[in-house]
Design a protein that fits this description.
Distance between the termini: 53 Å
Oligomer: single chain
Number of helices: 8
């Protein structure tokens, strides 16, 4: 593949998926600057590896998985306690055209979940992936995915 094709593909991929990755990473990291770093690292990895995907869905799933892994790495190695006002979270989440409205109470509760629970909630409920697809993206079994969703629902019920 020529450099022009690679550059065009990279540009199209960034334009197509940066908003999606931004929303997902922001719910995990809670900090705009950190999210920007993680997304940049995700696209750098895409550019370096330039994997060949069977379909656009597989590319999307790969980008989500890589970005979530980078978020996990970031949280593991950079234990920071950032504060972003909830109004800013709502502005960011509502600022993109393809997002269904999320209510303040849902964001506050999702925000409080730990990473493992939050990641399955985001992929399953917010992004609409199936249990199977969510499990594949997170490299866990379907039963582990179901169990995490059950734990997340129970935790969210407790919060109410």
């Amino acid at each position: 593949m020529s450099n022009k094709a690679t550059n065009a593909d990279l540009e199209n991929t960034i334009l197509k998926y940066s908003d999606l990755l931004y929303r997902i990473c922001f719910l995990i990291l809670k900090n705009e600057q950190d999210v920007g770093d993680v997304i940049q690292e995700t696209f750098i990895q895409y550019m370096k590896k330039h994997p060949d995907f069977e379909s656009e869905e597989k590319k999307k799933a790969w980008l989500i998985k890589v970005s979530q892994n980078k978020c996990k790495d970031f949280l593991r190695f950079h234990k920071r306690h950032s504060y972003v006002p909830l109004d800013d979270v709502e502005d960011i989440m509502m600022g993109t055209s393809d997002v269904e409205p999320l209510y303040k109470v849902q964001l506050e509760e999702i925000w409080e979940l730990d990473y493992k629970l939050k990641s399955v909630v985001i992929l399953y409920y917010i992004e609409g992936y199936s249990i199977r697809e969510t499990a594949q993206m997170l490299a866990i079994s379907e039963s582990a995915c179901k169990k995490r969703l059950e734990r997340a629902r129970n935790k969210l019920k407790e919060m109410l």
